[in-house]
Amino acid sequence: MKLKHRLQRLADKLPPPPPDRTEAQKRWERVQDRFCRLLGQAEDLFSPDEDAAVEQGFRPLTEGRVLEGPYGRWLGHLMEGRCRLPELNPEAMKALLLAWLSSEVEGSWVCRGCGLEYPHRKAPLSQWRLLPGKVPLVGSPPWYDLPAFFRACPHCGASDFDVEWAHPVTGGGRAWQELDGYVGVPAGPA
Q1: At CA 122, angle to CA 118 and CA 124, rounded to 5?
Q2: Strand 163-165's sheet: what is its strand order?
Q3: How many Å apart are CA 86 and CA 30, to the nearest integer?
Q4: For residues 66 and 124, what is the distance between their CA atoms, to the nearest angstrom?
Q5: Alpha-carbon separation of residue 158 from 77, 116, 129, 153 (angstroms)
Q6: Prediction pTM value
Q7: By C-alpha distance, which of 107, 104, 90 is closest to 168?
Q8: What is the pLDDT of residues 20-67, one digit of tens each?
């Protein structure tokens, strides 16, 4: 299939971390390999239309516009150490790849439990529906039934309230930064 060849070209074009960070470069290469392997495993689950859509989603990356397109943000955040790529099952990888393609993606979350970044869906105020028996901001969330791609982390199942935005994730201090699938500088002992 053309997608596997394009993915290899993608892996060849993605910029490595600076050369003086050889350990980070090795970690990035391992994450690239994992990403391609997980994609290959998820590919068996795609319908022909999904396969075509995912291939189209990777087109900017395989054409050298490395951090563009629907997967550019995720790959960029992986490179920068703002999230990690855990060992996902094929169903979770498929769900992530398809969710990132949606025009409804508004941003992304990073799971505080495992470090996986996953997209969150636009939720205009017109779509906010109060859950039965709930009072806004009283008791524990959720208070509203909002549209979502995922109701929990697709990898570890942590609550979608146990997340943070990707952009402030820099440096260490998070337990998942010590796990495999993380490219950035490990947090080290506290």
Answers
A1: 155
A2: 117-121, 105-111, 163-165
A3: 11
A4: 31
A5: 20, 11, 23, 5
A6: 0.79
A7: 107
A8: 557 878 888 899 999 999 999 999 999 999 999 999 999 998 888 878
Q: Which residue has the tokens 């498929």?
A: 94
User: What is the spatial distance between Cα 89 and Cα 92, in angstroms, rounded to a whole number?
Assistant: 5
Task: Classify 31 as helix, strand or coil.
Answer: helix
What is the predicted pLDDT for the residue at 96? 96
Torsion, Cα of 22, 85, 114, 146 (10° steps): 140
> Helix count (H) and strand count (E) of the chain?
5, 3
pLDDT tens-digit readout, 136-186: 778 887 776 777 778 899 999 998 878 888 877 776 788 998 899 998 865
Comparison of pLDDT for 47 and 133, the residue scoring more: 47
Question: Which pair of tokens denotes residue 177?
Answer: 């930064």
Q: Report cis status (omega within 30 of 0) of the bond before 189.
A: no
Tokens of 34: 């994992």
Return the number of other C-beta atoms located less than 10 Å from residue 174's C-beta: 20
> 119 - beta bridge partners?
108
CA–CA dist 28, 34 (Å, integer): 10
